[in-house]
Amino acid sequence: xSVLVPLAPDPDAALSRRNPVAKLTAxxxxxxxxxxxxxxxxxxxxxxxxxxxxxxxxVRLGTLLRxxxxxxxxxxxxxxxxLIAVQGGEVLVEIGPxxxxxxxVESAAAxxxxxxxxxLPGIVVLAATDPMDLAxxxxxxxxxxxxxxxxxxxxxxxxxxxSADWHMIGRARRARGLDAGWSPVGRLRAFTGQxxxxxxxxxxxxxxxxxxxxxxxxxxxxxxxxxxxPQPMQPADWALVAGTAAAxxxAVAVSVAxxxxxxxxx
Amino acid sequence: MTGAPAGGxxxxxxxxRGWGWRHGGRHAWALxxxxxxxxxxxxxxxxxxxxxxxxxxxxxxxxLLDASSGGExxxxxxxxxxxxxxxxxxxxxxxQDPEAALVMARAGDDVAFGLENRGVPTEAxxxxxxxxxxxxxxxxxxxxxxxxxxxxxxxRLALAGIVALRPGLLLLDEVTANxxxxxxxxxxxxxxxxxxxxxATAVVVxxxxxxxxxxxxxxxxxxxxxxxxxxxxxxxxxxxxGARLAARGVWVPGHRPLVRRRAPSxxxxxxxxxxxxxxxxxxxxxxxxxxxxxxxxxxEAVALTGPNxxxxxxxxxxxxxxxxxxxxxxxxxxxxxxxQPARPxxxxxxxxxxxxxxxxxxxxxxxxxxxxxxxxxxxxPRQAGASDAAAGQRADxxxxxxxxxxxxxxxxxxxxxxxxxxLSVATAIATAPRVVVTDEPTYGxxxxxxxxxxxLLxxxxxxxxxxxxxxxxxDLVDAIADRRVTLVRSTADQGSP
Amino acid sequence: MTTTTRTSHPTTGPDATASWRTVDVVVAAAIxxxxxxxxxxxxxxxxxxxxxxxxxxxxxxxxxxxxxxxAVLGALVVRKRGAALFTELxxxxxxxxxxxxxxxxxxxxxxVEGAAAELVFALALYKSWRLPVALGAAAAAGGAAALLDLAxxxxxxxxxxxxxxxxxxxxxxxxxAGLGSWLLVRALARTGVLAPFGSGREQSRV
Lengths: 266, 497, 206
Hints:
Chain A is mainly alpha-helical. In chain A, about 65% of the residues lie in helices and about 5% in strands.
């Protein structure tokens, strides 16, 4: 069974100790900024700032690059798609029936930079946040109902179990003679069968887990749930959010000053 | 009232009068007309055949039967005079599968979960967590990752989670059923300590009655769809109705289900050989299975035993050709009639595997692939290339033999635990493989299913199959095993049982 | 001797406006988690082809619907307000955790896709859980996903290419996430696992 090893940043690093909702807000700010800036300059500036802040996150750049190869591969694919599909401007290169134009290169570069600037904070925040802390913070700071936050957290506990179920089901199907074989149709059928079986397992486990949680008083109305692990918002957390907003504003300002900023539909 | 510890909650008095329950979507009542009274501090063992409503009664006592699911109740059920649903905090229910009941990633947080739910002030929480962990003898601290715990440790953690809430009524639903003997012993010891320390009223359901019979004062026998059939001190109840209960599948001390033993004769040729087979998960710090040699011969039943984590299931999967060993190999012997000689089993096509090696998994639901029971039995033979008529005949034969004929058109997932188990064995042998590998086949089964399965496995061995059984069940080993292999975490040593 | 007091409830179960029970939350989340695993399994199956898919968008659009199944399926099983959004969010969170290596970015997708499906169920006043509503919710989720893709990945494509892409994604979603989820729920109900839910009790009594 292969479950990907998590990024495991340094738990003492500055970012790991910050409040999870502050981190989530910061990542959200970057996402929105990238949504409204279609030019290459804004993300480029933002990337520089993000790279400069990396040492504070406890994630080592080398490790990050090594683990991110599927992401980079995916971005590469999107780049190629844009190189092929975007028309306009001078033709730079002709590869068979495809014309690669200057506009295409510009667009592809912009998209690549945007995606990189966009995903980097998300990856780092995810790695530097403990799911339990996130659930606590969501309930305490954003008033998410405890039922949803801790219900989802508990279901997350089922992940290794369902993963093991998935693999066992695959083996059991092979033992029954239902090999996937190499044909795409065969693989698809085998896959669908496995999906169904793991869904049954998920519902079964979910029902049992819910019963266990109820047996420990989870769903009681009329009782005010108390907090075992407080998650206050400290000055450093506000600083993180403010700092991210400032970085984004700076990137946009630079782009506007250079005259390159391009909002959607603009 | 029996002594309540300082700062704890007093034990609860339980009263049921004409109580009955019918689950939503069912015609028959699970229980009806139950009259039962428990004094505070009294400890009761609930007995009855499978389906007698024992779990239903425990769930009702915990106040968790959900009327909104469409169920129907009759009569009254009160704890200290109030309906159970109103005083849920007085009862604590510990269930059978601790892994399914773990809520949090760290041990301390898991115990704190119940305390948070009950509104215990923040300042008091962690002290009670430490107390509870200590009371059950939990060997690690608050930060122990729950996923890495053994079954016995997880179950003790679950017990700590309930104990921390200081319930007056302790409800134990087959808490040692999923554990290996060592884990079960530890949990039982923790239970004894907790029951004595808190003096709580307790209702216990347990298959392996001898584990808990010393802890209880009274035994109550339930009738499926009915009420209380017998009620009294355990020794008396076993004397009076022990034989009848055993005949209906209850594990009664002194009444062991019999399986006839064939005298071991010369075993046939070797069929599968594991050669220094080892397995290690990627990025794991120790091997799941250390290099092991094991040969399976026709007409021989091998029991694979050992503590959890020794790699028994891993070895079984490797021998069945379903897991690729990271070290060594598993190869067929000529007597198995392999499609290509010397090709390791994990490389075989499913079609070839199914006619030579049958595997029965620990969780029968993992193996279910069809929409009706009869179709399940057709899958294997059809994949092996049998004609529809031949496959149909074989299916009908197996349905008869395993007592599943009346369920032929039912959806396999709707079967009871014992029926699913028998079905999974049937599907494994439908193609008449010469090697049969089973993983914990008698897990949590009542005595009747146990006897049926043991008899079936013995028949397979007599018929010339090589049988490998991974099991914790000593009775099964005694009943059918010709040879016993015990795995230890880094070596394997072999010997007769 | 005993007074029988019966408390019974109709077998259709609670309606969607009732509040979520623990079992509703946990099973919806469990479905999301299961799909996180399924997506990972899917990616391993087609790993080598994934970058090729990303560079040939029509290929990716064809199978896009699979990523939207949790939203529709969660709602059809649990039948509560917000189920579509919640389940899809959990599925994308698990997807992120399991290391698609795109990080929290997928959460943004989950949020928007789930919300779109949720909107359709809301328009049906949470009273209908039949095939047409399922198809509509799936189509809406697909449309939302396509919009996000066009905004983030392909903003400079020619107008008609964008429309073709969106159409393919919506078609795939309607088929896989709409029809597929509906069939899945019916099959699940037949196994009896959905007994605690309204979706499971439309079977005949055992």
